[in-house]
Structures are given as C-alpha cells and as structure tokens.
C-alpha cells in the first residue's frame, strides 16, 4: 500500500498537482515507516530508509514551493468531493483560510433561498451555518457581504424574513450583514479580505438531504453525505469587492 501511494504521489508530482502530491507523499511515507518497523531484514530496512529519506526531501521541497506560491499570490488548490463522500463540513473547507486578520467576507451565491420541501430545510440554513463558523473565530469578522438572487413567488417574503433575522442575530455579535440581490448572478464564490478565494461548484449547498430529522448527519455536516462537486481555492493579492 505504501509503494502504491508513493507511486501515485510521483505521478501527481509530475503532473504539477503539488497539493495532492504532498498528501500522497505524506501518507506513503507513514505507511513505509510502518513497514520498516515490521521488517527484520536489515538490508531491506536500509533500502526502505533510503527511499523514505528521498520522499521526505521531495515532500519538503513541495511544501516550500506551495508556500512560495501562496506568498506570490499564485496558489491554486483543487478539492474534488465525490458523490456521497463525508467529512467535508464547512470547517474542513474554510477553517485554514480564516486567519485572525480576516475582518471582511464576501459571499456570492444565487441560491441562498430555496427550500427542500420534504423536511423544510432551507438553503438559508447553510448560509447561517457558514455565518456561525465566522462568528466562532479565530478570525475577527466585522462585515459580511451577501449577493444572491430573489426567490420566486411566495418564497420571496420567507427568504427576506429569514435573511433579516440572520442580520439581526449577527449584529448581536458585532457583525454587519450587507444583503444585495441580483437577477443575473451565476457565479458562486466566497472571498476573504486576507486574499483567499474559494469557488465551489454547487455553492454552499453541496450536502445531500439527511434521511430524517433524527438521522446521523442532520446536525453534524461532517457526517452528512455530499453531492459530487469541485472546490477551487485561490490566493490573490487584492480581493475583488462586489
């Protein structure tokens, strides 16, 4: 398993998919270290240790390369979330980019509005869950800008009422929510004023409906199966404002 994982790391490395390659190198090294511990043949141990040393050196080089890309504003990381995958709650995707200097956030998503009729679970709740993440810190968010589209028909008044309630609740934590609507919005992205930009193919609503109100995954998004989607993370030196 260790050899196969390292082989995959090398393939990703050659393809310049450095972030994924680094993860595979780290996993492969851990597996190979376990093999070394279980091996009694000293000659084999020596060969394994040589290879592990080479892979560790390459992993460190990739780390430095990634850090330089971040500093130069050229960083790009892509996460592919498979159908029915779990472990991709908002903390998993966003936490590492929510540094202490983050004070302003832009959310652009046309569908902060619809209702899953079967269990009355609003996509608005996804936005609320994201806001809760921002309030918890360690970032010091003071302003959130939301750009979305109006719901259709009778759902519009429900949408506005819910967003206004979120706005009032955020104000209790010293956070201002600015809400704007657009009939032509199509992009889905989240931006932080420390330069990070996250684009999710399905926006914040990439989770599947839970099987029931008392099923595992209803409250903890890490345990909820996801729809297939792609997450792209960029770093730019100047965050565009709406």
TrEMBL record:
Residues 1-71 form the MIT domain. InterPro entries: MIT_dom (IPR007330), MIT_dom_sf (IPR036181), MIT_domain_contain_protein1 (IPR052817), MITD1_C (IPR032341), MITD1_C_sf (IPR038113), MITD1_N (IPR045331). This is MITD1 protein. Coiled coil: none annotated. It comes from the Eukaryota. Gene3D superfamilies: MITD, C-terminal phospholipase D-like domain, Phosphotransferase system, lactose/cellobiose-type IIA subunit. Pfam families: MIT, MIT_C.
């Amino acid at each position: 398993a260790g050899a196969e994982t390292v082989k995959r790391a090398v393939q990703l490395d050659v393809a310049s998919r450095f972030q994924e390659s680094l993860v595979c190198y780290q996993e492969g090294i851990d597996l190979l270290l376990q093999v070394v511990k279980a091996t009694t043949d000293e000659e084999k141990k020596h060969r394994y240790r040589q290879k592990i040393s080479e892979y560790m050196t390459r992993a460190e080089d990739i780390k430095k390369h990634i850090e330089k890309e971040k500093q130069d504003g050229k960083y790009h990381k892509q996460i592919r979330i498979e159908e029915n995958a779990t472990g991709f709650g908002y903390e998993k995707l966003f936490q590492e980019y929510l540094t202490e200097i983050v004070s302003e956030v832009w959310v652009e998503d046309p569908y902060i509005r619809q209702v899953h009729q079967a269990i009355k679970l609003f996509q608005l709740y996804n936005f609320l869950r994201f806001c809760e993440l921002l309030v918890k810190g360690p970032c010091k968010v003071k302003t959130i800008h939301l750009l979305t589209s109006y719901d259709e028909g009778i759902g519009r008044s429900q949408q506005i009422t819910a967003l206004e309630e979120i706005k009032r609740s955020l104000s209790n934590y010293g956070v201002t929510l600015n809400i704007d609507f657009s009939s032509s919005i199509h992009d889905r992205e989240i931006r932080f004023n420390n330069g990070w930009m996250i684009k999710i193919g399905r926006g914040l609503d990439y989770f599947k409906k839970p099987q029931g109100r008392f099923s595992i995954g209803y409250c903890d998004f890490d345990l909820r199966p996801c729809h297939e989607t792609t997450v792209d993370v960029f770093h730019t030196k100047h965050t565009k404002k709406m």
